[in-house]
Amino acid sequence: xxxxxxxxxxxxxRCHDKGSCDMLDxxxxxxxxxxxxxxxxxxxxxxxxxxxxMQEFKxxxxxxxxxxxxxxxxxxxxxxxxxxDAAGEVGVNRYMVDSVNIREQIAFIHLDEPEEMQIKLADxxxxxxxxxxxxxxxxxxxxxxxxxxxNGCHICYTVCDKDAITMVPDKHGRVSEVSLVDKEKCxxxxxxxxSCPVDAIDMTVYSNREMVAQVDAFIxxxxxxxxxxxxxxCHWCAYPAADGAGSKRIPIDPxxxxxxxxxxxxxxxxxxxxxxxxxxxxxxxxxxKPHACHFESGNIRTMSRMKLIKLLMSQLGLHDNxxxxxxxxxxxxxxxxxxxxxFISELKKLGPNxxxxxxxxxxxxxTKKKG
Length: 371
Known about the structure:
By secondary structure, this protein is an alpha/beta fold. The protein is about 40% helix and about 15% strand. The chain has three domains: about 1-140, 3-Layer(aba) Sandwich (Rossmann fold); about 145-205, 2-Layer Sandwich (Alpha-Beta Plaits); about 220-365, Rossmann fold (3-Layer(aba) Sandwich). Helix 11 links the parallel strand 11 (about 280-285) and strand 12 (about 325).
């Protein structure tokens, strides 16, 4: 059951790329999607980005009173903004439109394993649906401060490279001053959000709700008979490299699920630790190379922050190879493919996350005690 009434429309682009997208079982995907009560429409188009399909897209939104949209198509770096503009023309907030990259990052790279390709396709849509339900309308991407929670520590003020954060008197009289974000200066990197020690800052888009919803969906759909790896890819660097790997049809092991972040600096240690402590076999964080970050220092902030995860994992008795950070050039798809393949290969050597068996033992012992 849904916690709130939403009306999601899913639009699938078949793209008819012989031997690639044709490998996807759209009928099976449609059956999967129609199992969600929040999805009120599933449409397939041969070329979703065509002028004719775009007009049909806008009409379907209006006719079905759709308020959230998921596109199954090529990379969001190609046509997503066009669809957001079109949805805006018929009254849907542009940030309520998102996509699943079924071409470059599923069909093109998993041709040798069609069944695993189909399972991954469903999983990525499940994660997209969870994100869609958690998304809220926004006017742009920027950070916002909850001045009831802010403790005036100045950390966000210190890490902001755009001077978008100032310290102002606390109108609630709890502390001397609190943070205030100038949304016109904020460039949406999210570094301040992951740096806040009291969770007083969030993003309007790529919010904590949206990102955690995807992690939760990934956890829910983990399989006991397969490697379960989560890959967090920076939108500006690692994600384009992944697209490039798809365009070159570089084979990649399908046993991973992807979440796109605006910057590696937006990746919250809480997401990573949640996935691993709930049984994920490993988490791979991919950002831009040092001194090549779109947000200038997002990856530098990531370097220091992620060292703590390795420490916590060792205290949990986990091999530190279950979490890895790598820097990827957007124009080096071969490196992206190698890093992902090597990571999954390492997880296969390590075997299942030992926390899973410990949880089973604990549950069994608890059940016996009650009996």
